[in-house]
């Protein structure tokens, strides 16, 4: 089995669209628009992966940026909620 490269330099825009579509089809129906049914919770998948599809950021970079703004060290899925909770605790 040969693994296809997902790097921008090795793919066309159409191939990148298909890579994103295939990668997101793991949940069943393949329709993620405004779903938030998985831990990704990004709402519009098109918006999240558009920089990869456009050839501006590698797929791994898009995923790292999403993780960096969504997850916090030590658990907790949403950095905004974690920040709000710690602010409430520190003012008491």
Textual characterization of the structure:
The protein is an all-alpha fold. It has helices at residues 13-24, 45-53, 59-70, 79-91. It is globular, with a radius of gyration of 16 Å. The model is unreliable at 88-92 (pLDDT under 50).
Q: What tags apply to this protein structure?
A:
disordered C terminus; 50% helix; single chain; 92 residues
Condensed summary:
This protein has 92 residues and is mainly α. Helix content is 50%, strand content 0%.
- Classification by helices and strands: mainly alpha
Distance between the termini: 58 Å
Beta fraction of the residues? under 5%
Q: What is the tally of beta strands?
A: 0
Unreliable segments (pLDDT under 50, ≥5 consecutive)? 88-92
State the helix count: 4
Please specify the SSE layout and strand pairing:
Elements (H helix, E strand, L loop, with lengths): L12 H12 L20 H9 L5 H12 L8 H13 L1
